[in-house]
Amino acid sequence: MNAYPKRIHFIGLCGTAMGSVAVALHQQGWKVTGSDEKPYPPISDFLAKHHIPLSLGYSSENLPKEEALIVVGNAISRGNPELEAVLNRKLLYTSLPELLRTHFLQGRHNIVVAGTHGKTTTSSMIAWIFEVAQKNPSYLIGGIPNNLGQGACFRNPDTSRYVILEGDEYDTAFFDKRSKFLHYLPELTIINNIEFDHADIFSNLEEIKLSFRRLLQLVPSEGMILLNGDDVNCLDIASYASAPLVEVGFSENAGNRILSPWQKEGHCGFTLFGEAFDLPMTGEHNLRNAAMAVAAAHFYGIPLSTIRKALLEFQGVKRRQEIVATINGITIIDDFGHHPTAIRQTLEGLRARYNTARLWALFEPRSNTSRRAVFQKILPEAFAAAEGVIIGAVARAEQLSSSERLNPEQLVLDLTAMGKQAFYEPSTDEIIIRLQSLAQPGDVIVIFSNGSFDGLVKRLQAKAVTTNIPLVVGR
Q1: Rounded to an integer, what distance in angstroms lies between the CA atom of residue 370 and that of residue 196?
Q2: How far apart, in whole angstroms, are the C-alpha atoms of residue 343 and residue 156?
Q3: Residue ranges of the chain that CATH labels 3.40.1190.10
Q4: Torsions phi, psi of 194, nearest 5?
Q5: What does each C-alpha distance from 92 to 72, 83, 101, 226 come to in angstroms?
Q6: Model confidence at 248: pLDDT above 50
Q7: What is the pLDDT of residue 463?
Q8: Of 374, 377, 380, 378, which Cα lies nearest the Cα of 361?
Q9: 353-382 average pLDDT score
């Protein structure tokens, strides 16, 4: 780190990883600033809590006057006025993954958690297990684990030898189109699953699998690869591994076979390595996430009794099945889900937990994939466990042609044909009005969005305060 001035500025600060690293550097004594558009909780609250100056909007005026390192977020593209000023002034800039690789990760035991789904929860579990085991871990997670209170922590490398990283297959920056996880110098790599996603940068599933094959080729011969033994796409890339590889799953062929799975009263559990584990979460996907975390911790010699204790104490991650309120008998849950598989698994897990409640799913098609028509035919089945569904407006719809764009009206027709109560409401005000006529005590409302959904949770709260409606929520 000594090669850089201890002054740093983040363009696109409110990405979860960017914001988490910014706070970690601030805690190490760096002077940190950043800029972004339309920040939203929890990351905006997290930055404010740690007194990180945030400029709203992008402008050359945001850039530091003194010598500084500029970190360019992967959502920032040419034409951004702040980026253009960086290039014209010939300022020192880098990407977040490259900053991590060069100045944080070399010479350390890096555990990289990859896959289409479950990265944030699995990496959070591993970081917490290592914390409980007193391994003094560093970590970078694309969310805020409730046990840890922040998504990034970079401790002194002399005493913090283990780094747990959420490894994203999305591209690195406008000037580096490789997947982020290819920068992370993995010693142990987990691949939870592989599906098509990120339709804005990948043309098909084979392109995504190519990135994962490249990740496998980076794991050293003394390292380890943990692969989902029940996922056909994971198995398809296994032959590209040069490091030892162990399959984790329910299959009889899995080297680490998950046995005796169960779900009951908000918990799930399983047996692995002859030890019974209990997790205060629901859903088969969380059970699989936990099994991967157990296998990773076991590889590094953490006692099974310590792993079991840590999992039992695991409190989840913000915006992953996060209960934000239970008031007037109505439970409100905030979830980051935006891919059909993630939505389906979350609703199935919640159905097991709230087996007699009516589940209402509110979905904002906001991610670069979910707002496209690529999932038009399979999205209806993702909501099978819900009694009713409300679809919000397609984000940035004007950027896509009608043939490229998800058709929410058709989605509602398909859901209605399945026997669901389904509605398309293009504004949050209309969603609130619809909920007033639908929600009853005992219901569970799940809000799915990888953004703020136009502040829907806070808008619901404000509406309740001003109108005395029975539906009251709050963070």
Answers
A1: 11
A2: 38
A3: 102-313
A4: -140, 125
A5: 10, 11, 17, 37
A6: yes
A7: 55
A8: 380
A9: 91
Q: 12: exposed, middle or buried (C-beta count within 10 Å: 0-12, 13-18, 19+)?
A: buried
Q: Which fold has domain 7-91?
A: Rossmann fold (3.40.50)
- The CA–CA distances, whole Å, from 201 to 192, 197, 207, 373, 422 equal 21, 9, 9, 15, 31
Alpha-carbon distance of 326 to 242, in angstroms, equals 50
CATH 3.40.50.720 residue ranges in the chain?
7-91
| Position 397 confidence tier, pLDDT thresholds 50, 70, 90 | confident
Q: Cβ contacts of residue 369 below 8 Å, gap of 6+?
A: 196, 197, 198, 199, 200, 338, 339, 375
User: Whole-prediction pTM value?
Assistant: 0.83
- φ, ψ dihedrals at 276, nearest 5°: -90, 130
Fold (topology level) of 102-313: UDP-N-acetylmuramoyl-L-alanine:D-glutamate ligase (3.40.1190)
Domain ranges in the chain with CATH number 3.90.190.20: 322-467
Q: Are the beta carbons of 181 and 116 closer than 8 angstroms?
A: no
CATH of domain 322-467: 3.90.190.20
Q: pLDDT of 12-67, one tens digit each?
A: 999 878 988 898 889 889 999 999 998 888 788 989 999 999 999 999 999 999 99
